[in-house]
Task: structure prediction
Amino acid sequence: MLSYLLKRNNDTTFLGWRMVSVAFLVDFIAVGFFFYSYGIFFKAIAVEFGDSRFGVSIGVTVTQGVGAVLAPFIGRALDRFPLKNVMACGAISVGTGFGLLGLVQTPLQFYLVLGIFVGFGAGAMGQLATSKLVSNWFVLKRGSALGIAATGISVSGVVMPAISAWIIATFGWREAFMTYGLITFLVVVPVVLRLVISRPEDVGLLPDGATEKGVLPPPKPALRTRDFLSQPNFWILLTVIGLLFGIQSATLIHMVPQLTDSGLSLVAASGIASATAGFGIAGKLIFGVLVDRWDVRHALWLGIGFQFVGHLFMLFVEGYSGFLLGACMFGFGMGGVVPMQGAVVGAAFGRESFGRVLGAMRPPMAILHLAGTPFAGWVYDVTGSYRPAFLTFLALYLLTALIVLALKVETRSKNRARKPAGDPNESAIN
Result:
């Protein structure tokens, strides 16, 4: 992949898929290194600091909470400044944060580093930025492109739990974080600075590789904050995504501790986490295509359905195989949420406002999103079991499915494309 990325740009070649590859790599590190690996670090950090599972769960909340608070400002910066500059600043912050996590001596220091460095950095280089980049380069194939880019997160989830478990067992959790910081500095920063191009128009190209503007839907003008805040789609989408992200985060973060509590080794438990992420890859690719072709509500219901059934298996089917099957179904449904979020925002609000809209969604969405992980940790501390938390999540899936009914956004490319100029009888989409 790196050799492909580092090839010299050709002004006559559509570079959108190269931007997708960059987004894939950045998501792999910005989200995957921390999000999918945190459950592997969980017990080691708790033992060293003498903290409860609720306390260690707060680390995720702090990181994502800071990112959510800063998201409106980061979103504005992404719409205003070259994307490579914002993303490079984020990568430097994340790399510094991972390095400092290897040196902290107290829980307070741990949380401060997560919030100040990792929280800001992941927000500036991660999904908000990569979704903006891909959405700038694709209009008609936005869902598919976002789905491919987002698989970087899931691929990281496949490989990183096992790698993290090995590094922690062999060297320690501090050394693992420091290794990830070094990789961020040596790989992400140079790739972003050299390759990221904010918009196809900056190099004389058009989105989707179009040869004329007539095949693309008319661009939406930049919206003022009060304009998109007054639209029901804004609030419906942030509620749906916030609830789903909250359930997903809690399930993934607590999955490994839950499995090791049942007697599985760390390696075996991390294998189930990897399988979950692996099916997430398939989910991102398939749902990315579906959202370009289906009513977005149908795609969301299908994703929610897979997650719901997956949780039923993890709750009520005993044994390793039952939990594994449930985790795989959950991962498949979970995978589709990321590309659908970006596709809906892009279709409803346009490229010019993408960063501001998605950034403005993050703080209220975070109230729902960030509650899931500490809630599950608190339930465990009080009851000695994760089961009540999982039962609550089942009820929330049903609530979310009902809210989706109110979503009114057209994401299907065949209904949004113009007919090519001079050829009124042919569709703009093959």
User: Anything to note?
Assistant: The two ends are 29 Å apart (CA to CA). Residues 232-261 form the longest helix (30 residues).
